[in-house]
TrEMBL record:
Pfam families: Ribosomal_L7Ae (PF01248). The keyword Membrane does not apply. Keywords: Nucleus, Ribonucleoprotein, RNA-binding. Required for ribosome biogenesis. Part of a complex which catalyzes pseudouridylation of rRNA. This involves the isomerization of uridine such that the ribose is subsequently attached to C5, instead of the normal N1. Pseudouridine ('psi') residues may serve to stabilize the conformation of rRNAs. It comes from Elliptochloris bilobata. This is H/ACA ribonucleoprotein complex subunit 2.
Amino acid sequence: MVKSAEKAEKAGKSAEKKLKKVKKEKTPKKAAEDAGEPLVVDAAEAAAAPKKALLIPIAKPLADEKLSKKVLKLAKKATKRKQIKRGVKEVVKAIRKKFTGICVIAGDISPIDVITHLPVLCEENDIPYIYVPSKEELGAAGLTKRPTSCMLLLPKPPKGGEDNDEAKEFAESFADVHRRVKAVQPSVF
């Protein structure tokens, strides 16, 4: 009985070895390399393709890569200076209290109903708004680990502030981004 168990165990091991020897199908990358063809994949295209597919249909005006980078950099500075309102609830509350600034909205929010009222609210209060491609990048710019759906970047701290070189530099950056965001706004009539 012991010998039959040993034979069965050996048979099982040999079957496993045979399965390992069966060649796996080649991936497109390896197939192209074997055929001698260079496989050219642009990293920017590969990264941008999934993001474009996930964007919500109302994400207009969408910041291009350069403007998106500037807006997120300004958001990071604003967060350090406590000149920011983060999340739908805080942003809506600030806009209703007549705060001004730049509204930055993530373009990959699901469900879309969470932020559909924000552009209308911003237009009614003459606040420029812009969509950025990723809520994760927007959250990272706000110095949090959580993805963020929207932010309101304030030109001045809500509770006063210091006048120093850093404040002047932020004011210049804010003015530049404000001008660029205002330029891409859809014209109403």
